[in-house]
Amino acid sequence: MNEFFLWGLAVVALALAITAGARVLGRRRHDRLRARGYELIFSLKSYSAWVDSWCDEPLMSRIPDELALPEPLARAREIRDTAFPGLSQHMVRLLQSHSRLIEHLWRHKLLRLSQATGWQPAWQDPHYQQIRGAQEDLIQEIIGLTQDMIGDRAQEWRRTGTDFAFSSGMSTSLGPTAGA
Question: Is 176 among the domain residues?
Answer without folding.
Answer: no
